[in-house]
Each structure stands twice: as C-alpha cells, then as structure tokens.
Design a protein that fits this description.
By secondary structure, this protein is an alpha/beta fold. Helices cover about 35% and strands about 20% of the residues. Helix 3 packs across helix 4 (about 140-150). The longest helix is centred in the middle third of the chain and has 21 residues, at about 95-115. The radius of gyration is 19 Å and the shape is globular.
C-alpha cells in the first residue's frame, strides 16, 4: 500500500508516493530522467519494512542518483546511507572545454525555443503512447513501460498526454571532473551501495568513449571510501530495478538492514 503526496512549490507541486509505515525517518527514492515515482513500484514491496535509521537515507536511479549524490556532498551530516542504481553519483564532464561550452549553449537555446513555441502537448492512444515510450527506452520491458505510463501520462478526451515538463529534456546539469569527484567523495561520511547492470549504461562496451572516466571514477570510489563502499554488478538492463526487481532487492535489503538499522520507505 502507498499514499500520494504533493509538496507545493512556486511553479506548481512536486508529486511523490509514500510506502510503508509513517514511523521513523524516511528513505527518499529519486527516479531517473523523465521517469516518475512508479519506477520503484515493483522494488519497494520486496524491501524490508521494519527498519529504523537515525538519519536520512537516499536511493537514486540514473539521474536521480546524481541528484542523491549531490545532496550527500552538500549535506553529508544528514545522510545515513546512499544507494545508487545504475549511477555513480556524478554526471560525466566533457573533457573538451569547447564541447562543454557547446552543451551549455545548446541547453539555453533549447529552453528559449521551447518557451517561444508554447505548443499544445500531443495526445496519443494508449498503445501508441506505450510504443513511443519503449522506443525511446530500449532498456524497458513492456510491463515496465506500462507501469511508468500509469503515472507518466494523463487521460484527456483526445487521448493520453505525457506528464512531462519539456524543459527537463534540455538536460541542464552540473558536470564534474575526476579530480572534483574524488574531493566530493571524501565528504561522504557513511556507506554507499552502487549497483551496476551488466547490460546497463555504465558498462565498458556501452560507454566506449567514456570508459576511462567510468573506470577512474570507480577506482576513486574504492580509494576514497574503502570499506564504506559496496559495488555490485548484476544481470539486467538500465531499468533492472523495475524489470527484474528480485535481482537487486536482496542486495539492497541486506545493505539496508546492516547494523540493525531501521527506516521507513
């Protein structure tokens, strides 16, 4: 069972879902780029419920992992444990300064273009909406796509409309070098679990041009955190937690229950 939450903000509201009992401190789960809270629907029921933490715990998938990582670096005293699903907690920086400048300019130009167009969102049939989602996310199964679509689209008289702020597609992010990453890693005060999928987005054959960065970053994690870090490689794709939650639920449960801690998911 879960309950819906809405947090008012100046531009509208931030939507969330709460699982489990209301006692204790929460574990905040952050979904990936252009996804929604349903991404954790199949994983959360497989995790332990009778947990208790003294501090805050974060779990993030993909870009949500980068957000979780940044929070840990800014407020290390608040974070009890960090769980990264198909994420290293950082966004990779272009080595070429010109490429970095072009990416920043592309974001600004894209935002200005979106604001100028002010287009009405396109409506899709349920079948077409799912097909488009699956075509854009080759790591998703049809079942996983349908779960995301339940929360990721609104039914209108014309059909389904995606619930997305199109500005998010511009990917306005903060990037870091390996040296910066190492310094930030040293701020993490507690344990980190990183789960990488064998057919995900962080394996060498899927990142040929950035393999050296990923390898260096993994080595930096192991060097800076030592006994505080646990790396796990599992079979599956970028959405393994949604497509095959049992593959990762045991690893995450053991990590969460270590040291007889307790929290609310």
């Amino acid at each position: 069972m879960f309950s819906e939450l809405k947090f008012p903000v100046p531009w509208g509201h931030v939507a969330a879902k709460a699982w489990g009992h209301s006692e204790g401190h929460p574990v905040l789960c952050l979904h990936g780029w252009l996804d929604n809270a349903n991404t954790f629907d199949k994983l959360i029921p497989l995790l332990p419920r009778a947990l208790q933490w003294r501090r805050f715990t974060l779990m993030g998938h993909s870009m949500g992992g980068a957000v979780a990582g940044m929070f840990c670096f800014l407020y290390p005293e608040m974070v009890d444990k960090l769980i990264l699903l198909e994420s290293l907690g950082f966004l990779l920086a272009p080595e070429d300064i010109e490429a970095w400048l072009k990416s920043k300019r592309r974001v600004i130009d894209g935002l200005l273009s979106l604001e100028a167009k002010q287009q009405t969102p396109k409506a899709w049939s349920p079948k077409a909406a799912l097909q488009r989602l699956l075509e854009a996310n080759s790591h998703l199964t049809a079942e996983g796509g349908a779960i995301l679509l339940q929360r990721g689209a609104t039914e209108t008289p014309a059909g389904l409309v995606y619930n997305r702020d199109m500005r998010a597609r511009m990917q306005s992010r903060e990037f870091f070098t390996v040296e910066q990453c190492v310094k930030l890693l040293q701020k993490i005060q507690d344990r980190v679990l990183i789960i990488v999928s064998q057919d995900g987005l962080l394996v060498p054959h899927n990142l040929p041009s950035r393999n050296h960065f990923v390898k260096a970053l993994q080595e930096a994690f192991e060097s800076a955190l030592k006994e505080h870090i646990q790396l796990a490689e599992v079979p599956g794709s970028h959405f393994v937690h949604l497509n095959e939650p049992k593959v990762v639920s045991g690893i995450i449960s053991n990590f969460l229950t270590a040291q007889n801690t307790r929290a609310r998911l």
